[in-house]
Amino acid sequence: MNEIEQRITQLREELEQHNYNYYVLSAPTISDREFDEQMKALQELEAAHPEYADPASPTQRVGSDLTKEFKQVEHIYPMLSLSNTYSTEEVQDFYDRTSRALNEPFEIVAELKYDGTSISLIYEHGRLVRAVTRGDGTRGDEVTANIKTIRSIPLKLRGNDYPERFEIRGEVLLPWPEFDRINKEREEQEEPLFANPRNAASGTLKQQNPQIVASRKLDAYFYYLLGEDLPSEEHYTNLEKARAWGFKVPDVIRRCTTLDEVVAYINNWDVRRKELPVATDGIVLKVNSLRQQRNLGFTAKSPRWAIAYKFQAERAETRLNSVSFQVGRTGAVTPVANLEPVLLAGTIVKRASLHNADIIRKLDLHYGDPVYVEKGGEIIPKIVGVNLEARSFMLGDAVQFIHACPECNTPLVRPEGEAAHYCPNETGCPPQIKGRIEHFVTRRAMNINIGPETVDALYDAGLIRNAADLYILQMTDLLALDRWAEKSARNLLESLRQSRQVPFERVLFALGIRFVGETVAKKLALAFTSMERLQQATYEELIEVDEIGDRIARSVLAYFADEANLNIVRRLNEEGLQLSIAEDLLAGQSDKLKGLTIVISGTFTKHSRDEYKAMIDQHGGKNSGSVSGKTDYILAGENMGPAKLEKAAKLGVKILNEEDFLKMIEQ
Ligand code: IVH
Predict the structure, then answer these.
(1) C-beta neighbour count of 58 within 10 angstroms
(2) Nearest ligand 1 atom, CA 302
(3) What's the DSSP call for residue 289?
(4) In order along the chain (667 residues), what is the average pLDDT of each group of 10 residues?
(5) Which residues does 254 contact at the CB level (< 8 Å), separation at least 6?
(6) Ligand 1: distance of its center to the CA of 612 in Å?
(7) Cα(593)–Cα(240) distance, rounded to whole angstroms?
């Protein structure tokens, strides 16, 4: 091994140890900053020496920005589910059945049932080679790149007593604090919220872009080992081994020798699970001995040697008084049940979500019905059924979905294939108008110092009808509002004054044009440089821009085709907002590389890789991670990998060195 290879190996080992300390043991020994520095050093060395590339290197966890469709692969052992039980009587039945079938002493391993999305990992020679989702149990999606972003999953195992090849199964989870953070962010971005961490975890694993996966801090707990030459004939001991190899195996698993111990475990965790950082929905009981497991075997759907005990979702019965229909900022109409207040899981519940028209129909809801409400993993309690026996013989009217908007009386529409109804009156419906102003003032948009309540109050007082109205607010207007003192009024006016300096790309984002999020706004701002030119852009010119497709182009055109919107933009211009791109951003912009796809490879002396990336962007080119038929140039530094060189030669891709490239973009 030469010096460089040695250094790379050493950095990889150190970084993996720090990952393990931090993510598995929760006991870091170095600062984040030191970690980042070491990671950067390794990244640079690997970029310079692609011949030492290793898919198990800690740098591979960062997630490349390559996106791809998932490949479907067959499971080696089918991924079965467990049969569910809901009472201690059913658990006792399982225990007795097992006892009779085995006719000898046995142990039960009790574990928590984690409520995420299951994953199967294949390790060969101590390295992670494949990660597959459950899919239909027989075939699943290969999501290895996404799984590698989960820091608590070992890419290389510790020690050396692992089988040459084995499979380990576990649950990918999104811890509660991270779930809350993501939902808060989605709320700000007007994206639909995740109902529970399970949906969030499985949705995240199906993301095509591993960088997004890496940004959502998933975790994974493991509970099942499969293979031809496992270390032990006991499930419990195998899991202990897996823990020693670096997997996160929960230390709450217990070996039980009597039914009483099993029941005590269930009762204990039914309460204590509320302290855990991740969602659980029950207990799993497994026969410990693998020999006994083989004797018991499987039914078509599940093993006979294991069952799940599901915790009772907290449920209460109450009366449905009425249903209200709420209009959100996107115009979506949500039915909400108003209930006779009832105590559920420690809080008084008065309202429950009814989701959409189909769900109302399925429940066959009538006014006055006695209904069951449950609080499962969801944030908002939901109605799960009607107590038909207790239903009054004087049946109330059936609950009907409304046909017109409760706020503005416009007939509702239901787009094909969607479950939701919408109010199409975007510019005249109060909650939609308020929603747009609320978006305009958010931190990432205009950063104006007011919240939704203030927007409501200003709207109700008749002071604002659109974003431009904010800029004509006067001190006297504000002081006339309820509970407004001079200080808060002054703050708002000052914050409005400062917002006139917010750069064009954020003003464009703030307008709330459908599908124009932060990134798209930036692309449009750079491409057209001013609001005036953007307004005049044609469909063809719009879709010319990198990453702007049909959907966005149509939405932009529709926005500027509306006289009311043009009026708002005109007034914002008069108020002195930044409606063209700042000079310093523009200086140095060019389209010298327009339409060119460039791959960066190797190490450089004049600028860093990141600087070259920025230059390509600045001059209208596209930076891509891998050489393909679409590549126009490779910007090659020292030590470009031989594989890339060969591929480039085969595809006839031109190679530029630093000097060539800098000449190309010279002013
Ligand atoms: S064992 C053949 N153990 O529950 C048995 N599963 O319905 C394999 N789960 O798909 C599963 N925690 O996603 C097992 N401690 C645990 C579990 C667990 C959660 C999930 C898993 C599985 C489903 C079974």
Answers:
(1) 25
(2) 2
(3) B
(4) 90 90 83 82 87 87 59 92 91 96 97 96 96 91 94 95 97 94 78 83 87 90 96 97 97 96 96 91 97 93 94 89 91 93 86 90 94 80 90 87 96 88 92 94 92 91 95 93 90 95 95 87 91 96 88 93 94 96 75 89 81 83 83 87 79 89 85
(5) 109, 110, 261, 265
(6) 47
(7) 56
Strands 332-344 and 117-124: unpaired
**Residue 114 near residue 279 (C-beta atoms within 8 A):** yes
SS3 331: coil
Nearest to 398 by CA among 369, 368, 366, 354: 366
Per DSSP, 397 falls in state: P
Q: What is the pLDDT of residue 190?
A: 61
Tokens of 102: 């085995």
DSSP β-ladder status, 597-601 and 622-624 = parallel
Quick check: 376 and 315 in contact, CB under 8 A?
A: no
How many angstroms separate the first and last alpha carbons of the chain? Answer: 46
Residue to mutate (ligand 1; options 85, 171, 198, 254; most atoms within 8 A of CB): 171
Q: Work out the angle at residue 422's Cα, subtended by the Cα atoms of residues 416 and 423, and round it to the nearest 5 degrees.
A: 135
Residue 99 is inside which H or E element, if any?
helix 88-102
Collapsing DSSP to helix, strand or coil, 22 comes out as helix
What number does CATH give the domain 590-666? 3.40.50.10190
Residues of the chain with CATH 2.40.50.140: 314-422
Residue 241 bears catalytic tag: no
Nearest CA to ligand 1 atom 3: 223
b/e map 178-198, b = 16+ CB within 10 Å = bbeebbeeeeeebeeebbbbb
Spacing, Cα 309 to ligand 1 middle (Å): 11
Q: pTM for this structure?
A: 0.62
Catalytic residue, candidates 71, 113, 382, 434: 113
As given in the structure block, the two tokens for residue 331 are: 């115009």
CATH of domain 72-310: 3.30.470.30
Domain 314-422 has CATH 2.70.98.10: no
Give distance in angstroms: CA of 113 to centre of ligand 1: 6
Report DSSP state, residue 465.
S
Angle at 500 between CA 495 and CA 505, to 5 degrees: 115
Element (H, E) at 8: helix 3-19
Which helix (H) or strand (E) segment holds residue 521: the answer is helix 518-528
Q: Running DSSP on this structure, what letter comes out for residue 476? A: H
Place of tokens 């007007």: 190
- Determine which helix (DSSP H) or strand (DSSP E) holds 35, and give its type and residue range: helix 32-48
Q: What is the CATH number of domain 430-584?
A: 1.10.150.20
Indicate where the chain has its CATH 1.10.287.610 domain(s): 3-60
What is the C-alpha to C-alpha distance for residues 661 and 635, in angstroms, rounded to an integer? 7
